[in-house]
Specification:
The structure holds two protein chains of two kinds. Chain A is built from 17 helices and 23 strands. By secondary structure, chain A is α+β, with helices and mostly antiparallel strands. The chains are: A alpha+beta, B alpha/beta. At the A-B interface, helix 12 and helix 13 of A face helix 1 of B.
């Protein structure tokens, strides 16, 4: 008996033997002290009768049922403080009921912990930015994060999981290519296959997937497929999909933007070339370049300048080489050239690129721009300007000859009505004066034709200025000094007679403007501008300058600031001449004097 | 007492001609070769019965003088070599008697008489 008791005591499971009255007649170590008392006492002292009425009622019901029908029953109850959970197996042996009691607290806690963990995971899933789908392929269930449930049509997937059709598909690898999910509903066949592979091999995979949501609408995901392992066995596949749509859209937008910029640039009539001045070779940097197009991603070998020149008019070569020569002394040079077919005007701007010291090559950047519209506009403006010129000129002529006719006609009438000697003398003087004015105006008008017909050729402008100085000094009289600065050998395209005539006119005007002694300084110098290279003759006086209200119109015909009422054609003629010679004339004025700059094209 | 006319023109020959004709036909005549001179004369007085002015003074314009005359109710005739009315500044197209150069002395006398008559009317 003692030996039996010792064996019983050594059992991990406690037990009690109840007689028909519910009195504990025997127990092992755990409940030894309770022998002789009723089970009510036992439960009342150690179990949560009151706290867990339902489980305890089930327990006593089970005891009564087993006593009645002899069927072994199993029920669980908890300790009063809920810290312990007991598993009770009730068996009948004759009149006795044997209750085996096992403490299952640890297992229950472990299970609870797992449940909590899963609940926690569920919370994480709900809140995650990523979309999680857990295919419990062994259990046939599908867990999805809310982000998936909210957005994706997963009913079909769930149905497939419920029906086991997904499992069937996965268990027959040769059927993987048969889509078990409608392609437009969630995944394409590639991911379906990937799920099967991960399930069977247990090896993680990663894909870029496209999920069509509606015709023409799709989202893109970076999808990770991870085997779902439980106790060393693959139970399913967890898919974590990171939504790349926004990112891809942004990326695509930037690609589109870059593409759009390229498109715009391609249609812009701009091209940029690298010019190796030392070797005379060009390399397209940007823009149209030679036929063959896009050079953005490739290195293009330097080519001879003819790749540019072949597209241009025959005279472009001389202009371009001339511009390159000028780069020796100037930082940037521009020339206008015509396309080979003469339909477009192009401006080639050369800009010297200062190289690194170790780079012996001299390099320039050539920017070729289509300036056709500007040139056409300038020509239209020039025509309009010319029309205005002609109109003002006509008005001026009408005015001057109107006055002459007025005087002639008026005095003729007076002479007829008052033929007295005083009137005759007065009238004769006025008539002579009017005749003189008529002659002066007609001479000036004749000069316009002369100006237009001038034969312009390369002449040494320094020499012209030098040789005309004595005549100019004579013209302005002793009170005005004429000085000159003319470095030898400055050649411009002009006609000597016109240049001298212009100098005479400017000096006369200047001398007239200076009431007292003064100085006229004539300087000859080479100048360059965007329009090309010129030789400039600057005539500067130290008189009072040109009144502001006249400054804008000094070159208009019949405008004069001279008190002797000159014809007002002198500066107009100078301007007409210079325009016809391909040059320009400009005036600057301040209270310290006026400067006229006559620019003649350099050959 | 004869009427007085202020003749304003920078062209000496034309001005002298007009002045001579008006003198010979019995007017009192004052002359000025600039707009500023005429304005000064008007301000200083005595006020002439009529102002006869050129339009084109080179850089200056007789328009200033005409507008001043219109403003103070001074009868004025504008002499101009401008061929068409379109060339005239718009304020001068209406309400100002215009003598187009070259004009005959008979036209001049008629215009002066008309201007003086309309000036006397009120």
């Amino acid at each position: 008996m003692m030996t039996d008791q010792a064996i019983l005591d050594a059992m991990s499971t406690a037990f009690v033997c109840l007689d028909a009255d519910g009195v504990i007649v025997r127990s092992n170590r755990a409940f030894a002290t309770m022998v002789g008392s009723t089970l009510d006492n036992l439960v009342g002292s150690s179990m949560a009768m009151a706290a867990d009425y339902e489980s305890n009622r089930a327990y006593f019901d089970a005891l009564a049922l087993t006593r009645a029908d002899g069927v072994t029953r199993r029920v669980r109850n908890a300790s009063a403080d809920f810290h312990a959970v007991f598993d009770n197996v009730i068996t009948r042996a004759g009149d006795l009921l044997i209750v085996e009691v096992t403490d299952v607290s640890r297992e229950v806690r472990e299970r609870d912990r797992r449940t909590e963990l899963e609940a926690a995971r569920e919370v994480v899933w709900r809140r995650t930015e990523e979309h999680i789908l857990a295919f419990d392929l062994a259990g046939g269930s599908l867990l999805v994060s809310d982000s998936v449930r909210d957005r994706w049509p997963i009913a079909q997937l769930e149905a497939a999981m419920r029906d086991g059709t997904m499992l069937d598909a996965l268990s027959n690898p040769h059927q993987w290519s048969d889509p078990w999910i409608d392609e437009t509903s969630l995944f394409d066949g590639r991911v379906e296959r990937a799920i099967a592979e991960v399930y069977t091999t247990g090896i993680e995979q990663r894909h870029r997937t496209r999920v069509p949501l509606a015709p023409g609408v799709a989202r893109f995901f970076d999808t990770q497929l991870v085997p779902w392992e439980v106790e060393g066995a693959v139970r399913g596949v967890i898919i974590v999909a990171h939504d790349l749509t926004k990112q891809l859209r942004a990326q695509r937008r930037s690609i589109f933007a870059a593409e759009a910029i390229n498109q715009v640039l391609e249609h812009l009539p701009v091209e940029v070339w690298d010019f190796d001045l030392s070797r005379g070779l060009v390399t397209p940097l940007f823009g149209q370049g030679p036929p063959g197009g896009d050079h953005a991603d490739e290195t293009v070998d330097p080519q001879p300048m003819s790749v540019i020149l072949s597209r241009l008019a025959p005279d472009a070569g001389a202009k371009m080489w001339g511009a390159l020569d000028r780069l020796a002394t100037e930082d940037s040079v521009s020339v206008q050239v015509q396309s080979a077919d003469g339909s477009r005007w192009l401006q080639a701007s050369f800009r010297f690129v200062p190289g690194a010291e170790f780079d012996r090559r001299r390099r320039a950047v050539v920017v070729i721009t289509d300036v056709t519209s500007e040139v056409v506009k300038a020509e239209a403006e020039s025509r309009l300007g010319h029309a205005n010129h002609v109109m003002r000129f006509a008005q001026g002529v009408a005015h001057d000859f109107g006055n002459v006719a007025q005087v002639v006609g008026g005095y003729s009438e007076i002479l007829l009505q008052h033929p007295g000697p005083e009137i005759v003398e007065l009238a004769a003087r006025s008539l002579a004066s009017a005749a003189q004015r008529g002659v002066a105006v007609s001479r000036r008008i004749a000069k316009i034709a002369e100006v237009q017909q001038a034969v312009n050729a390369p002449i040494d402008l320094s020499a012209v200025v030098g040789s005309s100085l004595p005549r100019l000094r004579q013209l302005v009289g002793g009170r005005v000094t004429v000085t000159a600065d003319c470095p030898p050998g400055l050649v411009g395209i002009a006609e000597e007679e016109q240049v001298v005539s212009a100098l005479e006119n400017l000096c006369e005007n200047a001398a007239e403007a200076m009431s007292r002694a003064g100085t006229i300084h004539i300087a000859v110098a080479p100048v360059a501008s965007s329009g090309g290279r010129f030789v400039e003759i600057a005539v500067a006086d130290d008189g009072p300058g040109i009144p502001d209200h006249l400054l804008g119109s000094v070159f208009d015909p019949f405008v004069t600031g001279r008190p002797d009422s000159g014809t007002g054609l002198g500066l107009y003629l100078i301007q007409e001449y210079l325009y016809s010679a391909g040059g320009t004339v400009e005036v600057e004025s301040s209270p310290q004097g006026a400067t006229f700059r006559l620019r003649f094209p350099a050959p | 007492m004869s009427a007085t006319v202020l003749v304003v023109d920078d062209d000496d020959d034309v001005r002298s001609l007009v002045a001579l004709h008006l003198t010979l036909t019995g007017f009192g005549v004052a002359e000025s070769d600039t707009v500023d001179g005429a304005l000064t004369a008007l301000a200083a007085g005595p006020t002439p019965d009529l102002v006869l002015t050129d339009l084109n003074f080179g850089a200056d314009s007789g328009q200033r003088l005409v507008e001043h005359c219109l403003a103070i109710g001074q009868p004025v005739i504008l002499m101009t070599a401008s061929v068409t009315a379109r060339e005239l500044p718009s304020p001068l197209r209406d309400g100002v008697a215009i003598l187009h150069k070259p004009f005959s002395l008979a036209e001049l006398s008629a215009a002066v008489s008309a201007a003086l008559a309309s000036g006397d009317a009120p």
